[in-house]
Write a structure and sequence with these properties.
Oligomer: single chain
Protein name: Protein arginine N-methyltransferase
Bound molecules: S-adenosylmethionine
Pfam family, one: PRMT5
Shape: elongated
Family: Belongs to the class I-like SAM-binding methyltransferase superfamily.
Largest sheet: 8 strands, parallel, barrel
Number of helices: 14
Number of strands: 27
Number of domains: 3
CATH class of the largest domain: Alpha Beta
Keywords: Methyltransferase, S-adenosyl-L-methionine, Transferase
CATH superfamily of the largest domain: Divalent-metal-dependent TIM barrel enzymes
InterPro entries: Arg_MeTrfase, Arg_MeTrfase_PRMT5, PRMT5, PRMT5_C, PRMT5_TIM, SAM-dependent_MTases_sf
CATH architecture of the largest domain: Alpha-Beta Barrel
Length: 586
C-alpha cells in the first residue's frame, strides 16, 4: 500500500476540441483522476485581439477545473503563454505544464519567459516538463538558478525507454511522473505492463507525493487508456505495507521542527508519551542495563537514572535487575517538577515505593552514596545537541562511584551533504527569514543524500570522574570531512545523525546504514546553507563544523566548501557565527 494516495491522470495525443466533454466522457471512462489538456488551441491570433474567442479555448469553464491540469502552447509567443496562464488562473486550474525543456532549448530565454510568467500571474505554478535523460538535470538546474529558485516552478519528469538513476530528482520539486504509453509492453494476455526495471523505479516514486500521467503516444492512438490506469493502480497494490514505525513517522516527512531543549525547558507530558512509544529504544537500554548489572562486582548495586522523565528507564532498570537476579537500589533524579508528580504516581502504583525519587538538577545534587551505574537518555538527533556532555560531566563527577559505569558510554555525530529543494524552501520560510542559520529536526524524505555520512566528533563518559575538567572547554569541537560528489547536484545543506554505545556491544544508531531497527525516537538533523551550491561529479565537498560553548550557551557553526579545480571552487558562509541565530541553553 502506498503511503500517499495514488493519483493517475491521462494525457490524450493530439488536440481535444472540448475539454469539458473529454473530462465527462473519455477521462471518466479511463478511470483516471485527472486529464492533461491544452489550455487553448495555440490561438496566436488572440494576442493581437487581446482575448480568446470561445472556439479557441479548450477548458471553457471552471466546472472541471479540479481535475484538469493545463498544458501551455508550444514555445512561441510569450504573450500567448501569458494570456493562457491568466485564463488558467481564471478558470481555477491548479497547475499549468510549461513547454518541454530539452537539449535544444535556449536556457536563458526559456528561464526569462518562465520567470516573467510566474512573477506576473498570481497563484498558478508552472510545471517544467523534462525527459529523464543525460544532461536533463543540469538544464533544469540552470533554469531554476536563473529563476532565483522560484518556488512556483515545479517538475514533470517524463520517463523513457532507458533506465537511468533518478535519485537526484528526488531532491527536486517533482510533481508529476509522465509515462508515455510506448514505454509499456504487452503481457501474455495482451494487456500493457512495464518492464521490471521500470516497475522498480515507479514503485520507488510511489513513496513520494507525486501524481502519474499516462501520456498517449502517437503510435498508440487506438489503445484503451483504462488498461494503463488500472495497471498503475495494480502496481501500487503490490507495494508492501509500511512498518508501524514508518507509518507513524510518515506524517512528519520533511516537516521542520525546532530541536527540543530538555535542559533549558521543561518538557510536557505528551512529549514524554511520544518518547515512551519507541519500544525498541527502551529494549536496548534494558539489555544494556542488564549486562552492566551482571558485570558489576558490587554486592548491592546502586543504579541512578538521571533525567528520569516519567520513568520508562526506571521500569526497565527494575526489570533488568530482576532478569539479572541481583539486588539493585534504584534512584531516579529529575529536574522537571511536573514530571516528578508522575514519578510519584508510578512509584506508588507500579514500583511498590522501592524507587528513591529526587527532584534536582543532576549537575548540582550531592548524594549520600554514589552510583555504580548511571543511566541517562539525554541524546538529541546530533548526539550531543541536548547537552548530554555538559550534564554527564557534572553528574559523573558528583554522582558516579570511582569504578562506576555510565550508560551511554559514548556517542558520536555524523554529517553528509544533502540536496533538497523542499527542505531548503521550508527553512527559508521559517522564522521570518532567519531560518537558514539554524538546524532542524526533520524526517528527511524528499532529498538526495550525496555521500555516506562521515564522523564529526564523539564524546565518551568512560574516564575516571576525578579526571573530568571543571570548565566546559574540553567539550568544544572542530571537525572537517571531505566528500566526493558522484552526480551533478545542488547542495542545500547537511544531514546530521548520531550513534551511541550504550554498554559493551549494545548500540543505538540513526545513521541510514546502521539504523537501529524500528526505532523512531529520533529523526535526523538538517543544517541548511544559505546559498545552495552547485557541485559536479568528481568535485570535493569539504564540511567544517564547530561545537562552541560560552557561559550558559552551546551552539554549532558550519560551512561547506567545494573544490573542482582552481576555477570552480566555492565557499559558503560560516553559518550561525557566535550563536547569532541558534544556541542551546545550559
Ligand atoms: C530526553 S528526556 C528523557 C526522559 C526519560 N528518561 C525517557 O526516556 O522518557 C530527558 C530528561 O532529562 C531531564 N533533564 C535534562 N537535564 C537535566 C538535568 N541537568 N538534571 C536533571 N534532569 C535533567 C529532562 O527534564 C527530561 O525529563
Amino acid at each position: 500500500m502506498a503511503l500517499n494516495g495514488l493519483r493517475v491522470g491521462v494525457e490524450p495525443c493530439g488536440m481535444v476540441a472540448d475539454g469539458d466533454a473529454f473530462v465527462a466522457g473519455e477521462m471518466e471512462r479511463s478511470e483516471a483522476d485527472f486529464a492533461v489538456l491544452a489550455v487553448t488551441h495555440e490561438a496566436e491570433a488572440a494576442v493581437d485581439r487581446g482575448y480568446f474567442i470561445l472556439s479557441e479555448v479548450v477548458v471553457k469553464t471552471s466546472q472541471h477545473a479540479y481535475c484538469v491540469l493545463g498544458r501551455a502552447s508550444t514555445w512561441g509567443d510569450s504573450d500567448l503563454l501569458s494570456m493562457e496562464l491568466q485564463l488558467a488562473a481564471y478558470v481555477g486550474l491548479k497547475r499549468v505544464l510549461a513547454p518541454e525543456l530539452s537539449a535544444s532549448t535556449n536556457l536563458a530565454s526559456y528561464a526569462r519567459t518562465l520567470l516573467a510568467l510566474v512573477s506576473n500571474t498570481a497563484g498558478v505554478p508552472l510545471v517544467v516538463r523534462v525527459r529523464a535523460e543525460e544532461g536533463a538535470w543540469a538544464r533544469w538546474n540552470r533554469v531554476r538558478m536563473l529563476c532565483g529558485h522560484q518556488v512556483r516552478l515545479q517538475v514533470a519528469l517524463e520517463l523513457g525507454d532507458d533506465a537511468c538513476d533518478l535519485s537526484q530528482w528526488r531532491a527536486e520539486p517533482v510533481q508529476l511522473i509522465v509515462l508515455p504509453t510506448r514505454m509499456f509492453v504487452g503481457n501474455a494476455a495482451g494487456y500493457p505492463v512495464l518492464r521490471k526495471d521500470h516497475q522498480a523505479e515507479i514503485k520507488r516514486w510511489m513513496d513520494h507525493a507525486v501524481a502519474y500521467v499516462i501520456r498517449q503516444s502517437e503510435e498508440d492512438e487506438d489503445v484503451n487508456l483504462i488498461d494503463y490506469v488500472r495497471y498503475l493502480r495494480f502496481l501500487a497494490g503490490t507495494l508492501e505495507d509500511p512498518s508501524a514505525a514508518a507509518a507513524a513517522s510518515a506524517e512528519y516527512r520533511d516537516v521542520l521542527q525546532a530541536p527540543l531543549q530538555p535542559l533549558m525547558d521543561h518538557l510536557e507530558s505528551a512529549t514524554y508519551e511520544t518518547f515512551e512509544m519507541d519500544l525498541p529504544k527502551y529494549d536496548h537500554y534494558e539489555h544494556a542495563m542488564m549486562r552492566a548489572i551482571q558485570d558489576s562486582p558490587q554486592k548491592e548495586i546502586v543504579l541512578m537514572v538521571v533525567g528520569a522523565g516519567r520513568g520508562p528507564l526506571v521500569t526497565r532498570a527494575l526489570r533488568a535487575a530482576r532478569q539479572a537476579g541481583r539486588a539493585v537500589q534504584v534512584i531516579a533524579i529529575e529536574k522537571n517538577p511536573s514530571a516528578l508528580v508522575e514519578l510519584q504516581l508510578r512509584n506508588a502504583n507500579d514500583w511498590g515505593h522501592q524507587v528513591t525519587l529526587i527532584r534536582a538538577d543532576m549537575r548540582g545534587w550531592v548524594p549520600t552514596q554514589r552510583a555504580d551505574i548511571l543511566v541517562s537518555e539525554l541524546l538529541g538527533s546530533f548526539g550531543d545537541n541536548e547537552l548530554s556532555p555538559e550534564c554527564l560531566d557534572a553528574a559523573c563527577r558528583l554522582l558516579l562511584a570511582p569504578r562506576g559505569v555510565c550508560i551511554p558510554q559514548s556517542y558520536a555525530a555524523y554529517v553528509a551533504p544533502l540536496s533538497s529543494t523542499l527542505l531548503h524552501a521550508r527553512a527559508q520560510a521559517y522564522g521570518d527569514g532567519h531560518g537558514l542559520e539554524t538546524p532542524y529536526v526533520v524526517n528527511i524524505h524528499a532529498a538526495h543524500i550525496l555521500a555516506e555520512p562521515q564522523l564529526m566528533w564523539s564524546f565518551s563518559h568512560t574516564q575516571p570522574s576525578d579526571q573530568i575538567a571543571g570548565d566546559n572547554r574540553h567539550n568544544q569541537r572542530w571537525a572537517t570531512a571531505t566528500f566526493r560528489v558522484q552526480s551533478p547536484s545542488l547542495v542545500h545543506g547537511l544531514a546530521g545523525y548520531f550513534d551511541a554505545v550504550l554498554y559493551g556491544n549494545v548500540e543505538l544508531s540513526i545513521r541510514p546504514d546502521t539504523h537501529t531497527e524500528d526505532m523512531h525516537s529520533w529523526f535526523p538533523m538538517y543544517f541548511p546553507i544559505k546559498q545552495p551550491m552547485t557541485a559536479s561529479p568528481g568535485d570535493e565537498l569539504t564540511v567544517h563544523m564547530w561545537r562552541r560553548s560560552r557561559e550558559s550557551r552551546t551552539w554549532y557553526e558550519w560551512a561547506v566548501e567545494s573544490a573542482g579545480g582552481e576555477a570552480s571552487s566555492a565557499s559558503s558562509l560560516i553559518h550561525n557565527i557566535n550563536a547569532h541565530e541558534y544556541w542551546i541553553g545550559h
